Amino acid sequence: MPSPARFWLGAHLRLVYLFLYVPIAVLMVLSFNRAGLPTAWTGFSLKWYGALAESQAIINAALNTLIVAVISTVLATLLGALLAVGMEYRRRGPGLEAMLFAPMIIPDIVLAIALLSFFTLLDFTLGLHSIILSHVVFNIAFVCAVVRTRLRSFDWAVFEASVDLGASEATTFRRIILPMIFPGVLAGAMLAFTLSVDEFIIAYFTAGAGQSSTTLPMQIYSMIRFGVTPEINAMATVVMLVSFTLVLLAQRANKGVVGV
Amino acid sequence: MSERPTVIAIEGLTKRFGEITAVDAVDLDLRENEFFALLGPSGCGKTTLLRMIAGFTGPDAGRILLDGRDMTPVRPNRRPVNLMFQSYALFPHMTVTQNIAYGLEMEGCGRDEIRRRVGEMLEMTELSPLKDRKPEHLSGGQRQRVALARALVKRPRVLLLDEPLGALDKKLREQMQLELKRMQHEVGITFVIVTHDQEEALVMADRIAVLKDGRVMQVGAPRELYEYPASRFVAGFIGKMNFFAGQGRGAEVAFGDGVLTGTAPGGVELAGPAVAAVRPERLRLAPQRPEGSLNAVPGRIVDIAYHGQDLNVHVEVRGAVDSAGGEAGARVLVRLPAGEAEEGDWQAGQDVWCCWAPAHTRVLAM
């Protein structure tokens, strides 16, 4: 018999997890409900997943989301990782530090409006490319933060050791620094990818008018204006599974600590 | 020892960090196949000097010549000099073999040559059984050997070692001191070691440069520095030393009622405050003032400590200054071989005379 304190702590933990996951579980269950209504269970069916696969609008949106997520992740990871190395190698002032965190902290809606005004000012045609650029903006900050935790305990002497042994700076980055921080870079990339996949506000503001640059969250939003349909449940389940897997992988990647 | 040819000539090398001059107009000659130690307290500029030779820190003035060629514009990855880092800086994602091979790959050596030279190095450092391990699965001593092998495999003209034994425990350190010396003999490469540990420098080095506040105080063989220190700082920094302060005149120091005679460095005629310095093992005790030409000062035994092979007797002498730079009335350390002195011979509280030969006395400016 565990002590009362342990018992209550355990109960509390279970309740918190229930609170977090029951709604998601309900959504997942309903996506397999034969009837279209969330009120009654009428039997197991995969027909909503079928409907999902047949909806051209949803497939287009999913493709757009994938394009945005992949390209913005690659760009943000590249820039964010380099930024992290630069910031840690030579410590900068607190002002620069704070500015680096800004895209993570300021509300999405503010960033969205700012980016929209900026693009308009430049007379920049909006579309997928503007969503990509906007996602790169906030993702750089996230990638940088993740990679920097990795570099905190980094022994910079290995950098000098590599140069001392005859390597150029570029070779040193490729052969020594990158492999050592790779788990962090991978974790940062996966985080960036998930953030990009389910990002709505900024994408909505910077997508422009055309249907062609609609992303998945925007598509879902436009669909639920006419009520939650079971297709959306199915789609949400798919998106959630993808995000969940990526987050798990990211955590795993960042755990296997290299470095002595 | 015959004079060996110079490998690295350092001329007027100076480095400032803001207001502080870390290295101040240093001139040094590092010779072929010697074990050279840069010795000094922390902050004396020894590591900065080492990093300038490696090329990681640029000098503000002066130059470094390697085989007569000015190294100043040469980047660290192009210098035929390798540095063994204090933290060893092994590449954690590579095995022992990969770590050692890295420098040869950078040189563009062929695969067969790399395999052969890495194999030789593994053999010499007795790392062969560990060659596929990653650094995290090695002990401190093993890591140190990998770091050494990784630098030596490049066959540099000069190997620089930054406090190479600092991270090891005392027993391992003593073992590695001899090991390093053996390897230096075996490879015939000039080793330049940075250390703050005077004992380490004495044991390992062929020659030592003692540094203080960015300046070279004295360069010489260990025995030379120990027996004939050229300044009060060197005398106090290397080994234990007793100082007797007084008015200096020629090679004499007026102390108490008498005069202490010795030799002054380079026959310098002293005038002004000076010290007569003598090693603890050169002192002997006598119940009365001895006859003859010995230097002698009166005092009272305050403490006797038995150390196995010798007996450390602390004698309070008015006006003595110990190596820590204490005030008047400080203690003098007399180290008597245990074979010569029976334990009952001397007692605390006893009035004695400390005496020693003028030949073992160094007269130095204050």
Description:
The complex is a heterodimer of chains A (260) and B (366). With 260 residues, chain A is mainly α. Chain A has a single domain (55-255), classed as MetI-like fold, CATH 1.10.3720. Chain A is built from 11 helices and no strands. In chain A, helix 2 (47-54) packs across helix 11 (230-255), helix 3 (56-89) runs parallel beside helix 6 (128-151) and helix 8 packs antiparallel against helix 11 (230-255). The mean pLDDT of chain A is 87. Chain B has 366 residues and is of the alpha+beta class. Chain B has 2 domains: 6-227, Rossmann fold (3-Layer(aba) Sandwich); 244-365, Beta Barrel (OB fold (Dihydrolipoamide Acetyltransferase, E2P)). In chain B, the strands form 4 sheets. A 6-stranded mixed β-sheet of chain B has the order 6-7-8-3-9-10, sandwiched between helices. In chain B, strands 11, 12, 13, 14, 18 and 21 form a 6-stranded antiparallel β-sheet that branches. In chain B, helix 2 (96-107) packs across helix 3 (111-124), helix 2 (96-107) runs parallel beside helix 4 and helix 3 (111-124) packs across helix 4. The relative contact order of chain B is 0.12. Classes of the chains: A mainly alpha (260), B alpha+beta (366). The interface between A and B is medium-sized, with 20 and 25 residues.
- Percent of residues in β-strands of chain A: under 5%
Mean pLDDT across residues of chain A:
87
CATH-assigned homologous superfamily of chain A: MetI-like
CATH topology term of the largest domain in chain B = Rossmann fold
As a percent range, the share of helical residues of chain B equals 10-25%
Descriptive terms for the model:
heterodimer, A: 260 residues, mainly alpha, MetI-like fold, B: 366 residues, Rossmann fold, 2 domains, 8 helices, 21 strands, 23% helix, 36% strand, elongated
Brief characterization of the structure:
Chain A is 76% helix and 0% strand. Chain A has eleven helices and no strands.
Which secondary structure elements does this structure contain, and how are they paired or packed?
The complex is a heterodimer of chains A (260) and B (366).
Chain A: H1 4-30, H2 47-54, H3 56-89, H4 94-105, H5 108-121, H6 128-151, H7 157-164, H8 169-197, H9 201-206, H10 216-224, H11 230-255
Helix pairs in contact in A: 1-11, 2-11, 3-6, 3-8, 3-10, 4-6, 6-8, 7-8, 8-11
Chain B: E1 6-17, E2 20-31, E3 35-39, H1 46-54, E4 61-66, E5 69-70, E6 81-84, H2 96-107, H3 111-124, H4 140-152, E7 158-162, H5 170-187, E8 190-195, H6 198-204, E9 207-212, E10 215-220, H7 222-227, H8 232-237, E11 242-250, E12 252-255, E13 258-261, E14 270-278, E15 284-286, E16 295-306, E17 310-316, E18 320-322, E19 331-337, E20 351-356, E21 362-365
Parallel strand pairs in B: 3-8, 3-9, 6-7, 7-8
Antiparallel strand pairs in B: 1-2, 1-4, 4-5, 9-10, 11-12, 11-14, 11-18, 12-13, 14-21, 15-20, 16-17, 16-20, 17-19
Helix pairs in contact in B: 2-3, 2-4, 3-4
